[in-house]
Amino acid sequence: MARPPGRTESPGGAAGVITEVKPKVAKPSMYRVLLLNDDFTPMEFVVYVLERLFNKSREEATRVMLHVHQNGVGLCGVYTYEVAETKVAQVMELARRHQHPLQCTMEKD
């Protein structure tokens, strides 16, 4: 005879109820994706990268680019680990393809 879902029988034949324990799901750690300043990558290329890979408007991309230029480092965005890792790889690949030494990194937020 089939038992109803969620019920078990104890050795004495009595039925017991199984309670489901919901696991606690922690929010994933977030990572900041940062662009690093150098003296060779054209400012327009940095704006292009910010627009294309980080979906920034022209004005916001220009603001971030100037921050990187003046302060040595600038925030592109905050993402989960996998997304941040992908963004860093995309920036590095795009810079390499265009023969620019632009560097990008990530750090835990």
TrEMBL record:
Family assignment? Belongs to the ClpS family.
GO biological processes: proteolysis
Job of this protein: Involved in the modulation of the specificity of the ClpAP-mediated ATP-dependent protein degradation.
The molecule here is called ATP-dependent Clp protease adapter protein ClpS
Q: Where in this chain does the entry annotate a coiled-coil region?
A: none
GO molecular function term, any single one: peptidase activity
- Using the record's annotation, list all stretches that form the Adaptor protein ClpS core domain: 27-105
Q: Record the organism.
A: Peiella sedimenti
What keywords were assigned to this record?
A: Hydrolase, Protease
Self-association state and partner proteins as the record states: Binds to the N-terminal domain of the chaperone ClpA.
